[in-house]
Amino acid sequence: MTATPFPVGEIVAARRPHRKDAARNYDALLDAAREAFAEHGADASLEDIARRAGVGIGTLYRNFPTRRDLFESVYADEVNALCRAAVELADREPWEALTAWLNRFAGYMVTKRAVREALDGESGIFQSCRESMYAAGGPLLERAQRAGVARADMDFGDLLRMVAGITATAFEDDAQRDRVLAIALDGVRASR
């Protein structure tokens, strides 16, 4: 897999400030927002996000004039990280690359749920993110299928829905979620 630019990468690059200090603040705000959304959902306090990032609320609003801008930027940044991970994992063995990416996808789903609730699926960014995710992760499944280590009777959409369904369930902790995901992924492995 080559380092082909994904549509979401262009969105992320266009939104990120060019000045180093402004870019640092922007990145800190995204990290803080990601944590806050994972902990508190779409209702996370913007003041708390600014505090976690170590900046004032004015800096948050300069970077993200509306709550929606913040949600979209966190979402696009998460998908962009998934796309980069797919490229980085492409040199691993097919099954290892696929399962490592799917574990990363499972972690992303927690943030996605909070952001998607807030945006009500009306964001134009969703289509670019979906296209990017399929372009990045789909080849990992196809490669695993060609190598005979993943079932051939499924497509990438099936796989994402399975993982999304698992992550939508409440678990006692991350370790339990990881065990359940591992059990499900054993069902994706091709019979030998």
From TrEMBL:
Transmembrane segments: none annotated. Coiled coil: none annotated. This is TetR/AcrR family transcriptional regulator. It comes from the Bacteria. GO terms for molecular function: DNA-binding transcription factor activity; transcription cis-regulatory region binding. Residues 23-82 form the HTH tetR-type domain. PANTHER family: HTH-TYPE TRANSCRIPTIONAL REGULATOR BETI, HTH-TYPE TRANSCRIPTIONAL REGULATOR RUTR. Gene3D superfamilies: Tetracycline Repressor, domain 2. Keywords: DNA-binding, Transcription, Transcription regulation. Residues 45-64 bind DNA.
